[in-house]
Structure of ATP-dependent 6-phosphofructokinase:
Amino acid sequence: MRIGVLTSGGDCPGLNAVIRSVVHRAVVDHGDEVIGFHDGWKGLLECDYRKLDLDSVGGILAQGGTILGSSRVQPAHLVDGVERARGHVAELGLDAIIPIGGEGTLKAANLLSEAGLPIVGVPKTIDNDIASTDVTFGFDTAVGVATEALDRLKTTAESHQRVLIVEVMGRHTGWIALHSGMAAGAHAIVVPERPFDIDELTARVGARFEAGKRFAIVVAAEGAKPRAGSMEFDEGGKDVYGHERFAGIARQLSVELEERLGKEARPVILGHVQRGGTPTAYDRVLATRFGWHAVEAAHRGEFGMLTALRGTEIVMVPLAEAVRTLKTVPEDRYAEAETVL
Ligand code: F6P
């Protein structure tokens, strides 16, 4: 069998572990040939690739980023994108393509699959918002980075009697905010799923100071916003790929809370540090299992499917189902966190 693999969209710790696992399972156990497309779908559309053997994936298990590179380019961006992809798949004699990506990548994978191409998807995102899998690799690493940052920020916040508003990633969902906020014992968490009331948030933070505490930490997912009309708020806009370019929740909340509370407040934006560096052991294992099962699905001819974690098992789910909705933070998970804030 000849397999093509690619990594597309925002990078994520664990991508290299998937690539390594695909190559090992395919080459060692099945005697397959594997090629890696450069910079995501762009590599497939431009027929830009290299052969991957055991040597080329040596030592990459613990490496962050992706040895193949990534981009936000998708077949749908070109008028002849699907036809180009089909042509290159035929030209290269590919029996399977394994795209590793998040929401946008999986939509592109579904489009190509519906056009008849042999696709087995692997989900990735630090945001953990792919509905069909219990967890995506990268999330555990990102939560670890954010939690460590929050632990560190507490000491400086206390020294200066400040309110720190810490912005974490999460465009549409607040999973990183919820988990890191719970893990670090934050004092308030705001997420996109649940527009916050600025009066309530002010009261919550203010109550801490009234009780004699010297600081407060608010964790804000980048996509969180206030309840309509509750405060002036600039939501920002979109980039050329349709991705949100937020005006900055942490900056806007720090101005508002400082004014309302009469306490010094500072915004802290963790940004891409959450996506960089070595994956945790959990993410390496999950990524490796996804890669292994993607190759197996390809050999069974199970195309148009996506690897997913359900409980402790890896299962295959239809791509069409996977791209339908996002996995948002449910109200009861938020309620659990609120009790301990
Ligand atoms: O991978 C998803 C994500 O982490 C979002 O939470 C964030 O908005 C986005 O990536 C930012 O990515 P970039 O700056 O690379 O476009």
